[in-house]
Amino acid sequence: MSRALRLAAVAGAALLARRALKGRIARSPLWPLPALENPVSGRSPRRWLPALVVSRTEPAEGVLLLTLASPELPPWTPGAHVDVQLPSGLVRQYSLCGDPADAGRYTIAIRLIEDGRGGSREAHARLVEGAELPVRPPRNRFELVPSPSYAFVAGGIGITPVLPMLREATAAGADWTLLYGGRSRSSMPFLAELEAYGPRVTVTAQDEAGLPDLTPLAAAAPGTLIYCCGPDPLMKAVEAAAASHAPVHLERFTATPDTGASRPFTVELHRSGRTIEVGRDESTLAAVRRELPDTPYSCEQGFCGTCQHRVLAGEVDHRDTLLTDQEREDSMLLCVSRAQENHLVLDL
User: What integer best gives the mean pLDDT of the chain?
Assistant: First the structure.
């Protein structure tokens, strides 16, 4: 073979190899690892998904019920919640209370809190039918564990994550009861739907009969799982009343009051190569967002998990109500937790 032919053959082989390599990478962004059915690179699982408000009703006094629709909305399971981005850019978190089988549609309920941080007021004022409402894919830290028996407790708008659990428990043939309390019947959503369950549901309006009677929790049958969502005083009361053999699963929508003292410290952002100061009166999240404004967050109260990040060095003063002991070994919630001493190194 002549030198010219050899060169042409080598060039042709190189061209074919480059084309094959491009095709291999296109099929698997993690090449040379095997191609994944759902590639994880190039598309964040926490990306914002476009959705439209297709229905707006008010099922109770001060409660807004929204149905969102989009072909991009992924499946979810009872107990899941989503982050939503309000028109102003505020990010808030709401439990899904619709039917998981209703593909492409999410339902959320928002209680108006006049003296809150402003999110609920904006939602009630601006989220009308046809409004765009970006959401992040659902997360679930309140999963319904399979069991032959459940005791559900809900306080006010805390009924939202519990409602789909009732449907799933019923479909599974489980034995269950629900204690549902609120300020007044007019302020308690979904009462009509709950009536269909008959004596399984006990509704207690505070203006009629005071607080819910939690004594049945002490007599829960072995194997019963207790699920509770509501304000912090209700959580504490349920934990105190529950039988020792009945595991309690909690979902908070308000933070546990923080009584810890704060002091300034430094945070090294390892991947960014920067060191920042966290002031006595600011959160780690606020300080980090000065340098990295796209750092995600939601509740800013230590119970949603959006701002969870890896800790590479330093002792953390954990002030959240969410992370497990194992998670706390190498991560923290930036919105509430701080350095135990003077310095932290974060994988940011």
Answer: 86
Q: What is the pLDDT of residues 200-246, one digit of tens each?
A: 999 999 999 999 999 999 999 999 999 999 998 999 999 999 999 99
* Among the listed residues 317, 312, 313, the one whose alpha carbon sits nearest the alpha carbon of residue 333: 317
pTM of the complete model: 0.73
SS (H, E, C) the chain: CCHHHHHHHHHHHHHHHHHHHHHHHHHCCCCCCCCCCCCCCCCCCCCCECCEEEEEEEEECCEEEEEEECCCCCCCCCCCEEEEECCCCCEEEEEECCCCCCCCEEEEEEECCCCCCCHHHHHHHHCCCCCECCECCCECCCCCCCCCEEEEEEEHHHHHHHHHHHHHHHHCCCEEEEEEEECCHHHCCCHHHHHCCHHHEEEEEHHHHCCCCCHHHHHCCCCEEEEEEECHHHHHHHHHHCCCCCCEEEEECCCCCCCCCCCCEEEEECCCCEEEEECCCCCHHHHHHHHCCCCCCCCCCCCCCCCEEEEEECCEECCCCCCCHHHHCCEEECCCCEECCCEEEECC
Interval 26-74: pLDDT, tens: 433 333 333 333 333 334 456 889 999 999 999 999 999 999 999 999 9
Rounded Cα gap, residues 308 and 50, in angstroms: 24
Give residue for tokens 């505020």: 90
The strand pairing partners of 108, in sequence order, are 66, 96
Contact 155, 234 (CB under 8 A): yes
